[in-house]
Give the backbone structure.
Amino acid sequence: MRRGPWRIVCLTEETTETLYLLGAEERIVGISGYTVRPPEARRTKPKVSAFTSAKIDAIVDLRPDLVLAFSDLQAGIAAELARAGLEVHLFNQRNVEGILTMIRTLGRLVDEAARADRLADGYAQRLAEIGRNVAMPRPRVYLEEWDDPLITGIGWWSELVQIAGGDDVFATRARAAAARDRIVTADAVKAAAPEVMFASWCGKKVRPERIAARPGWSELPAVRDGAIHAVASHLILQPGPAALTDGLDALVEAIRAWQARHRA
């Protein structure tokens, strides 16, 4: 007897990576062109979408039992696929708890609930352990998700910084799901005087030297100390396993290096 949806299209990377971790990779028949993790998915699976666009006819031709999408930015794609007669599940996780729930939900969709629960529980335990072992002092941290306009980091990124031992200077903004509600001014960043900066721009290479050269930013503690860190977007801007593992590790490494230099 066949278990769960057998042919799945993933329009974002995090569901692809999660299905591989659940041992259900053979069910994937189409992926996002932005997929990096795992590398074998990029090598072997057909690429049928970007992030805000998709090859609708190509997806329909794959005859998927289920299409997995993410957020309001893919709502139009999801609606078009639904009108074409396909079954679509649109995730909308915006924080760490949401990522863990996504993993558990996806496990249930593919009849791998026990394995998904073990995976999510393992991540939750790891996050708790890292959070319990943070050192002092805690740096003030600025997260930059885009450079023009300046958009500060989304919820799960802010929470992971907190777990890693830093304090997001725009933590209240991070709770906003829409990027337009996380726009900040250069003056607001200067006023916050961050001691560590992380930047991750989806689809564009971060240039720390250009950040440092912004008017009036040379006196910011993070700029003076050379504490501007680029984080690959596929590690921190994908709300899935990558953010909870390698993405978090990159934050921890940078914050611990800052703490080692500033410990009393």
